[in-house]
Amino acid sequence: MTSSGWNERSFLGRLTPPARQAVLGLGRTRTLQPGEPLMRQGEPGTSVSLLLAGRVSVTRIVENGSPSLLGIRHPGDLVGEMAVISQGVRAATVTALDRCVVSVLPARAFMKCLADVPEAMLALSRMTGDRLTQANTYRADAAGYEVEVRLARALLYQAEQSPDREAGHPVIKLRQKQLAMLIGAQEGTVQKALNGPALRDVVDCGRGRIVLRDVGGLARLAEMDPPPELRT
After folding, report:
1. How far is residue 173's CA from residue 209's CA, in Å, rounded to a whole number?
2. Residue 101, pLDDT score
3. What is the DSSP string of the chain?
4. What angle do CA 82, 85, 88 make, to 5 degrees?
5. Half-sphere exposure for 149 (CA within 13 Å, toward CB)
6. Which end of the chain has the smaller Cβ count within 10 Å, N or C?
7. Of 7 and 100, which is predicted with more confidence?
């Protein structure tokens, strides 16, 4: 987290206070209830949204009609920018997972801000690069690791972005179905893996939440170093 309270890897967290204020001053606040869509796949891109509180899912329906979970966005993140920049339609549906507060910026005002505030354009470029890297990482994980390892890696990726804690332990507020979609596995396979010998001693599973009890052990299973944000 930055001193401003935003995750340093989020769009808002990458901005200085003056640039952040300039961007936020362009929007109007909107509140969403859990399950309410913020934008839908196929709609024209007439605005972007900054997530101020809560989390949203980004889901795309692929050609065979199956849903694909592209990612979870957290406070400080920007959504809807690609359709605005390309002057095209939404590539995915964005849906509130929690009660969310967003700032909705009209497309024209957002594009003018990018031209007038170079810092905002740089933050957008870095954010886009991070998302592309993460998407490529999920693809590489799917090709190179068994489900247990992919799950461990996905949980650590999500914990980097989530501020939720339970008795000091990171908490991932996702259902097993959502985790399965995120790593490209069947829900039953994910359920079996979470209760299997590799994971049951390092995570605790509840309804719609997973507590990372042993980050070091999870990182060893994931064959990666613990994220700096989770080191104790």
Report:
1. 4
2. 98
3. --TTSS-TTSTGGGS-HHHHHHHHTT-EEEEE-TT-EEE-TTSB--EEEEEEES-EEEEEE-TTS-EEEEEEE-TT-EESHHHHHHTSB-SSEEEESSSEEEEEEEHHHHHHHHHH-HHHHHHHHHHHHHHHHHHHHHHHHHHHS-HHHHHHHHHHHHHHH---EETTEEEE---HHHHHHHHT--HHHHHHHHTSTTTTTTEEEETTEEEES-HHHHHHHHTSPPPGGG--
4. 75
5. 14
6. C
7. 100
CA distances from 191 to 147, 185, 188, 208 (A): 11, 10, 5, 12
Calculate mean pLDDT across residues 144-156.
94
Average pLDDT score over the chain: 93
What does the pLDDT look like over 185-201, one tens digit per residue? Answer: 999 999 999 999 999 99
pLDDT tens-place string over residues 31-66:
999 999 999 999 999 999 999 999 999 999 988 888
**Residue holding tokens 């209830």?**
33
- Flag whether pLDDT at 80 surpasses 60: yes
Mean pLDDT within 159-170: 88
To which residue do tokens 């390892």 refer?
Answer: 149
pTM of the complete model: 0.88
The tokens for 190 are 């994910």
176-183 helix and 187-194 helix, angle to the nearest 10 degrees: 110
Dihedrals phi, psi of 211, to nearest 5 degrees:
-95, 125
